[in-house]
Design goal:
heterodimer; A: alpha+beta; Dipeptide-binding Protein, domain 1; Dipeptide-binding Protein, domain 3; 8-stranded mixed beta sheet; 4-stranded mixed beta sheet; 22 strands; globular; B: 304 residues; MetI-like fold
Chain lengths: 512, 304
């Protein structure tokens, strides 16, 4: 007996050692992140900026979360099931979860969270995620630990939206959520407890010893606001912060810095050149295809991203489960481009590309495209405008809109649904601001979001990407890579990927 | 005198209303609106319209203005769109840090630029003058952001002497060097001009020691243009310095102001505009009153 327990003790310690070398972890470890902008509110149903979300990510948790491959996995809900008609989703909550103030989490909190988002008086722009064809999803507490979501019709992206972080009913019920003091002093269910927020300077969170997935290894995390990316790099080099994003121009230099590990990962983003299809210059598909042939995407990636990216050919990203490579690619071929333009009877094509000021990558892309298109006799003018001014033009509720072409980017959701970007109903109000209209694409988009079976959806989206790429309403330019530098005293990182290095923040530690 | 001050204070009311009116409408002329921040393919346009309406932005601009004015009279400047916090609180949080950086920088600038300017003028074309002339031009030519980053690389990365961000020393040095160059040149020019005046020649002819000529007769007169320039830049004291605050991660007014403009965060923009307008007009009033106190030739009472 004694022998066996000794053996199991040894095995256990070995296992532990493999997870995190014993003696290496500093129990007083403090991790310092840099944030590129100001934190606005620490309430997940209100915040819309990535900076606030980064901090909320360690304070709050949702029913569903995402793994390394961005697939939905259980979190506050230990499991869920869907009715055969795809309309009723039942979530079974964990029973061991407590808010940071000690009150147990129940189904009421979940229902309260979603009902608050649906409340028109609450300034949450997430509301439309829970409204399907004008009808809201109904949330119901079946018992203390069971929540039901009743959908008006099957809607595949729902599971992604069910991942919304949950806020405490006992602290927010009856309060004006838009202005609640809670938004500056949040209480959540996550691995870290809010400690202090000094406006514009930093936010500090401390370890939650009662976290349901185990006590975090770090004692504290400090989010330091450093708006300038060069300053953040200097602070990383000086050891004042432990992590910072690295722009491509500093990649080689930072790789050589001792004590810093540099990680690259793919992200769900793409940059494109979009044409206003309401403009007669671009109505002929051959003109758009010609411009696609005239675009040397490899050159763009090499010159702008210093090779830290990949050419894009479809409105999805290779790391998405719904990506398909079987799309027309229009590989760089200026001769073919010229031929197509001739076929279309287009002479002396001239158009203006809008780019937003301050985005160096897009500004450079405009200049390089200007040169590339000059080779096929197409004249490009560039207009650099402030971001809000560009949005005003492309979002104007009128037809046609006042632009010819624009360089922008989309950050893709975790669900492949591209309805709001490509469906013809999303013009002139909506994000199909280029007036793209194709009956097959519309049909595939509708099918894609109402089909729940993942295998079937994958096939639908493969067809969709092919149809859109064939039409070239956008010339898809590139997928960037996210590059991060991390101090080598930080351990317990996830493998580099779209979900980030700090996916399991409770397992991250500082070495002694 | 009291009558004059009362009259000027009364005049402030239409002046501030005028400033608010112009700023409010100009601000709304800028393209875009605060909900542009939420642009995301998953956010439906009707949600943006709903949030706009919650903020009262669906009303005509002149009605929005009257609502704003009515509240502003009661010292309620509304709440920031992004944080939901009262505008006055947002400003109050930033102001101390701004003053903490700006006031010492002002004092340091004065302490350094006056002696250098004076010595340069007195010893015109000497090695001292030439050295500081070159340094001043270099100082004016160097962009603040570059200087800031170089100081950070030197003191934080190379020598580990000072933290790169969140410490006051480096932003203070950068700030001071930035304003030093120009003011030194002004001081030198002002001093040179005074030194060529007749009364200085007279003072010297009387046989006064050079020390007294320079410090008592020349310097006091040469300080007047400097004081004017400093007075004019007083609002900067409260406005903060956007670039330096950004580089050194110093959460001051400059960052709040510029960020609010890009976000079209109307209540915060108006709060900052009105706050600075009030400071400027009050500053002018104080200056005018102090002229009367100091200079017997200026009187504000009606002469009968």
């Amino acid at each position: 007996m004694g022998y066996r327990s000794l053996l199991s003790f040894l095995i256990c310690s070995l296992l532990l050692a493999a997870a995190a070398p014993a003696g290496e972890i500093d129990p007083e470890g403090v991790l310092r992140f840099s944030l590129g902008g100001e934190v606005s509110v620490l309430n997940p149903i209100l915040s819309t900026d990535t900076v606030s979300s980064a901090v909320e990510g360690v304070i709050f948790t949702g029913m569903v979360t995402f793994n390394e491959s961005l697939e939905p996995v259980p979190d506050l809900a230990k499991s869920w099931d869907v009715s055969s008609d795809g309309k009723i989703w039942t979530f079974h909550l964990r029973r061991d979860v407590k808010w940071h103030d000690g009150v147990p989490l129940t189904a009421d909190d979940v229902v309260f969270t979603f009902n608050s988002i649906l409340d028109p008086k609450v300034n949450s722009v997430r509301r439309s995620d829970y409204i399907i064809d004008g009808q809201p999803i109904r949330f119901k507490a079946v018992d203390k630990y069971t929540v039901q979501a009743i959908l008006p019709k099957p809607f595949a992206p729902f599971l992604i939206h069910a991942a919304m972080s949950i806020i405490p009913k006992h602290l927010l019920a009856g309060k004006d959520i838009n202005t609640a003091a809670f938004n500056r002093k949040p209480v959540g269910t996550g691995p870290f407890i809010f400690k202090e927020w000094q406006t514009g300077d930093h936010v500090t969170v401390v370890r939650n010893p009662n976290y349901y997935l185990g006590k975090p290894l770090l004692k504290e995390i400090i989010y330091k606001i450093i708006p300038d990316e060069n300053s953040a790099l200097v602070a990383l080099e000086a050891g004042e912060i432990d992590e910072a994003g690295i722009p491509p121009k500093d990649y080689t230099r930072m790789k050589a810095v001792k004590g810093i590990n540099v990680y690259e990962s793919d992200v769900l983003l793409y940059t494109y050149l979009g044409f206003n299809l309401a403009n007669p210059k671009f109505t002929d598909k051959r003109v758009r295809q010609a411009l696609a042939y005239a675009t040397d995407k490899k050159q763009l990636v090499n010159l702008i991203l210093r090779g830290l990216g990949t050419p894009a050919y479809a409105p999805s990203a290779p790391i998405s489960w719904a990506y398909s490579d079987r799309v027309p690619k229009y590989q760089y071929d200026p001769e073919k481009a010229k031929k197509l333009l001739k076929e279309a009877g287009v002479k002396d094509l001239e158009f203006t590309i809008l780019v937003n000021q301050g985005n160096k990558e897009r500004e450079k892309a405009a200049v390089i495209l200007q040169q590339q298109y000059k080779k096929i006799g197409v004249k490009v003018k560039i207009r650099v405008m402030e971001w809000s001014a560009i949005l005003k033009i492309v979002n104007a509720n009128k037809d046609p809109k006042d632009f010819e072409a624009v360089i922008m980017g989309w950050s893709l959701g975790l669900d492949p649904d591209g309805y709001s970007i490509w469906h013809s109903s999303q013009y002139p109000q909506g994000f199909n601001f280029i007036k793209y209209k194709d009956p097959l694409v519309d049909k595939l988009l509708e099918e894609g979001r109402t089909t729940v079976d993942k295998g079937k959806r994958k096939q639908i989206y493969a067809k969709l990407w092919k149809a859109i790429a064939e039409d070239q309403p956008y010339v898809f330019l590139w997928y960037p890579k996210a590059i991060a530098g991390v101090n080598d005293r930080v351990g317990g990182l996830s493998k580099p990927g779209p979900a980030g290095l700090f996916l399991h923040i409770e397992k991250v530690y500082k070495k002694k | 005198m009291h009558k004059y001050i009362a009259k000027r204070l009364l005049l402030l009311v239409p002046l501030l209303i005028g400033i608010s009116l112009v700023s409010f409408f100009v601000m709304h002329l800028a393209p875009g609106d605060p909900t542009s921040l939420f642009i995301d393919p998953n956010v439906k346009p009707e949600e943006l319209a709903r949030v706009r309406a919650n903020w009262g932005l669906d009303q005509p601009v002149y009605i929005q203005y009257f609502i704003w004015l009515k509240n502003a009279v009661l010292l309620d400047f509304g709440r920031s769109y992004t944080t939901g916090q009262p505008v006055i609180g947002e400003i109050a949080e930033r102001l101390p840090l701004t003053l903490l950086l700006m006031i010492p920088s002002y004092i340091l600038t004065l302490l350094i630029c006056i002696p250098i300017g004076v010595i340069s003028a007195v010893k015109k074309n000497s090695w001292f003058d030439n050295t500081f002339t070159i340094l001043s031009f270099a100082g004016m030519a160097i962009p603040t952001f570059w200087l800031g980053l170089m100081l950070m690389l030197l003191f934080s990365v190379q020598f580990h002497f000072l933290p790169a961000v969140g410490n006051i020393v480096l932003p203070l040095i950068t700030m001071t060097i930035g304003s030093l160059a120009g003011l030194t040149r002004y001081q030198r020019a002002a001093m040179l001009e005074v030194l060529n005046q007749d009364f200085i020649r007279t003072a010297r002819a009387k046989g006064l020691p050079e020390r007294i000529v320079i410090f008592k007769h020349a310097l006091r007169n040469a300080l007047i243009p400097i004081v004017t320039i400093l007075g004019l830049s007083l609002p900067d004291l409260f406005g903060g310095a956007f670039i330096i605050e950004t580089i050194f991660a110093w959460p001051g007014m400059g960052r709040l102001g510029v960020q609010s403009i890009f976000q079209r965060n109307y209540p915060v923009i108006m709060g900052i505009v009105m706050f600075s307008a009030l400071l400027i007009v009050l500053g002018n009033l104080l200056a005018d009153i102090s002229y009367a106190l100091v200079d017997p030739r200026i009187r504000y009472e009606k002469s009968k």
